[in-house]
Amino acid sequence: MARVSTTRGYKGKGHCSLRPLNGTGRKFRLGNVISLSETIETDRQSREDFQEAGGGELDVSEPVTSVTAELTVNDIKPETLALGMRGSHELLAAQAITDEAQDAWSGERVTFRYIPDPDQTITVKIAATAAWAGTTAYAVGDLVLDTARAYVCTVAGESAGVVPTWPTTAGETVVDGTVTWRDLGPVTLTAETHYSPTPQGIRFLTGGDGLFVGDSILPLLVSYTRNPQYIIQALVNSGTEYELILDGLNEVDSGNPCVGRYFRVKFSPTSGFARIGNEFAELPLRMTVLKDENRVGAGLSQYMEFLTI
Question: Can you give the pTM of this predicted structure?
């Protein structure tokens, strides 16, 4: 039996999809679009009637100046987020990351370059690679390596002409010329003693306080397994053009289908996205509906069309 309309009330729902018009990339759904509305703006000019006291208009010209549409999405998908940020998105596979350089400060968190796999081992080492050198100027925070132990300069000065007798107990110090060195222990740090893993990297514990000298940076080398993840690069393109297709339905008309097509659209960067908050995040998007000169024929719109029962 053919579908028929039972009411002209309208309460719309549906799936919104985008198809890139440059021929690269697949069609994809925006997800849960909670609002979609278009606006047609005009430049209205009129010729007033100055012949009678009552006034009025003799003629009016109202050419369309722009067609835009507003969408709000609360499925924060990588594709949608990249769309709102004039960016790109890429799915990164799991990968072993070895000796990634990081800087650390006492009591602070260290955020790795990538999100680590929580089920895989993390190795954190002090980035001490330089051997001690005689009659050399050292600054506070400088590191040297001796037999897999790291030593940090706590008092600046010039080293002696002969190598000092290095302590082998973490926290002990040795005077070397006018330099004072502190033993930091083995270069490989101990989890839950010096640091604790976080979902994004590590955070230093009070047990790691002895690794730091004031506000000096402690350079690290971290090794871990990258969790599969999306990476979104913002503001790296001028905006791809799309066709937007609405597979809609009228909820109050027995769910009868309706279809909308915006033939050529270009999105503006989002006007705001709340990354921290108590409510579900929403991504507002604004698109300009452009003329599609490939659509030709009597009575055919070059902007958009809608099908309804």
Answer: 0.86
